Amino acid sequence: MDTSRRSFLKTGAWALAGATLMPRDLFAFKKKGLTGLQLYSIREDMAKDPLSSLRQLAEMGYQYVEHAGYRDGKFYGYAPSEFRKILVDLGMRMPSGHSVLGRQHWDATAGDFSDEWKKTLDDAAIAGQEFVISPWLDESLRTDADKLKGFMEVFNRCGELCKSAGVRFGYHNHAFEFSEKLDGTTIFDLIMQQTEADLVAQQLDIGNMYNAGARAMDILGKYPGRFESLHVKDEVKSEGREEPYESTILGTGLIGVKEVIDAAKKLGGTRHFIIEQESYQGKAPIDCMRDNLVQMKAWGY
After folding, report:
1. Collapsing DSSP states into helix, strand and coil, what is residue 29?
2. Sign of CA dihedral 124, 15, 95, 229
């Protein structure tokens, strides 16, 4: 990716932000951050009819979404510029998205990232993303501490590459980071120790960690200022599932979400609050998203 291309992407991404946020909105964003929705929460709806699904979210009052649907250079079947226009026409933005950075994207011999990964970053910038967040770590990287540390250096290198494309690189946790250890240290602690804060942002999923016995308040206290983004979830005991807990409508579960998000804002440096719900206890997912947004607004987010 040459210098002129990087400059274009960076300018384009911030131009989009300026075009979709009026000055008073920018002030509000800096003051309290933003509340968005991870579209995996309505994954079946997005697969069937993304336009109708996004329209329903906009009518509920959602202004921000986070994708989990980038495939073959497209977002939910649309080219990056097309998907951006769809969102803008609905009064929405996509400040972040999930794309897995895997071993196949790094050529150790050449010391460079694959063209496929570079295109992923290009497309993210075109779509208006601020963050490109990798939500998984392959099991093959979790067998040896030195191997993991080596890939965390790839994370740092990716952070540098992302900066040149006008976006930020980040990582999103599941449960294994807290339940698995290498040389006596949890994978999560190794990730935090081996990545540079200015290169690799952390998106803390406060629900996933619950299944490993970890608690968000403890992690926020241990690593203050490290969590620019938060996946906002609530959890209840699951029935007939492999994991002991499953997500539910905000404010109806066990986590004490309001206390966590307040602490994240004050202590964690969090400015993106991304709602995610993956289990629905018999309710329609799209209806749950309405209830979740109502609850976040009642909490002042």
Report:
1. helix
2. positive
What the block records as the tokens of 129 is 């993303």
Spatial distance between the Cα atoms of 136 and 101, rounded to a whole number of angstroms: 8
- Spell out the SS3 assignment of 143-171: CCHHHHHHHHHHHHHHHHHHHHCCCEEEE
Residue ranges making up the domain that contains 68? 3-298
Environment class of 180 (CB within 10 Å of its CB; exposed 0-12, middle 13-18, buried 19+): middle
Rounded CA gap, 225 and 260, in Å?
A: 14
- The C-alpha atoms of residue 99 and residue 74 are separated, in whole angstroms, by 12
Read off the tokens for 288: 């749950």
Q: What is the pLDDT of residues 12-68, one digit of tens each?
A: 444 444 444 433 343 344 456 999 999 999 999 999 999 999 999 999 999 999 999
CATH number of the domain at 8, please. Answer: 3.20.20.150
Please state the length of the chain: 301
Fill in the DSSP letter of residue 231. Answer: E
Mean pLDDT of 96-110: 97
Tell me which residue of 57, 66, 115, 138 sits closest to 95, measured CA to CA: 66
Segment holding 174, helix H or strand E: none
DSSP 264: I
The count of structural domains within the chain is 1
pTM given for the model: 0.91
